[in-house]
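Format notes (please read before filing issues)

Several people have asked whether sequences and C-alpha cells are stored in separate files. They are not. Every record keeps both together, in the order shown below: the sequence lines, then the C-alpha cell lines. Line labels are part of the format and must not be stripped during preprocessing.
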Amino acid sequence: MRYTVVDVRGTHGSGKSQAVFAVLQRYKGRPLMERDHPRRIYAYTVPKLNLYVVGPYTSVAGGCDRIMYQDQVCERIRVLARHGNVLCEGVIMSHLFKRYWALAQELAPTHDYKFLFLNTTLEQCKTNVLARRAASGNDKPFNPKNVIALHESTGYTRNALLRVGAHVTDVRYPHVVPAIMAALKGHY
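Then the structure lines:
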C-alpha cells in the first residue's frame, strides 16, 4: 500500500499549525509519548486516517518547530512513515529545500511526498501573528521584519521544489484542512 507525507508550509501566521491542530481535534488524534521522556509528546496518531502527526500540539502553535533539530524532525517522519501517512508542518522547515527534497526522494518508493504551500497574504499573516500575540498576552512591540522575510523565503523554497519536479500544491487560506484531507486521499 502507498502512503502519503503531507508537508504543510508557510510563514508565521499563515495557518499551518491551526490547520493541523484542527485535523487533530476533528479526527480525535491521540498523543504518542517519547520513550525516554514519557511526559513529552513525540507525535500523534489518528487511527481513522491511518495518520501520524509529527510534533507536539499542546496549543494551537506547535508541530515541528517544537522539536529541537531538523535532523530529529526528519527522523520522526521516517519512523512514522513506516506505519502509515504522515502530516507535518513548521515555519523552520518551510524555508528548507535540500533536506526535505532529499527526504521526499528517500521515501518515494513507499510514499507520495506532497508539499502544500499556504499562499496566505502577507497582510493576513501579520494580522494572524498580532492576534496570536494578543491572545497570549504578548504586548511587546511587533516588528514585522521576520514575517516579511520568511514570507519571501517560503516563495523561494516553493520555486526551488517546483524546479526539481516536487509535488507542490498552493493552498488558499483558510481552506487548509480540506486541502490536507484531499492530499491524504490522493486528490492533489
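For reference, the curators noted about this record: The helical segments are 16-26, 70-81, 98-107, 122-135, 145-163, 176-184. The chain has one domain: 3-184.
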